[in-house]
Prior knowledge:
Elements: H1 4-16, H2 30-36, H3 52-63, E1 65-66, E2 69-70, H4 71-75, E3 79-83, E4 87-91, E5 102-108, E6 113-120, E7 123-131, H5 136-144
Antiparallel strand pairs: 1-2, 3-4, 4-5, 5-6, 6-7
Amino acid sequence: MASAKQIAWRKKFKKKYAVKGKKKKGSKSTKSKKSKLKLKKSEYGTSKDPHQIPQDMLDELYQSKVRGFPFFVYTGIREFVMMGNDSLLLKEIPPNPNKISAIQINYNKGADGFTIDYFVGNSRVANPQILYVGDLAPAIVDKMGIS
C-alpha cells in the first residue's frame, strides 16, 4: 500500500504531465511529416548504419557454441574489426594447425549469404562457398583445424 506522501507525488505527476486534447498554436499535425519521409530508390533495402551487418555477424558468433563452449572461448580469438564494407575481420588468432593468422567474413548481398577469406601469413586464401548465418562458427573451426 502506498503512503500518503507517495499518493501526493503521484497526483502532482499526473497533473503536471497530463495529456490534454488541445494542441498548441504553433504545432502542426503529424500527417504532413509522414508524407515528407520518403526513401530514395537507391536507399531501399539498405541500412543507414554501415556497421549493422558486421554487428549482426558478430552477434551470431557470440551466440554460437562449438562443442558446448562459446565460439570465442573455443577458438581463442580476441580481437575483431567491423569494417564498413559489410565485412568483419577477426584477428589475433592463436596458433592453430593450419597456420591461419586472420579471418575476414564478407556479406554477399546478391546471394544473401557469407563468404570467408582466410589469411595464412600475408596471403589470402578465399573460400568461394556461400555460407548462411548458422554455418559460420562450424566452418571457421573446421578450417582452423581445431578439434
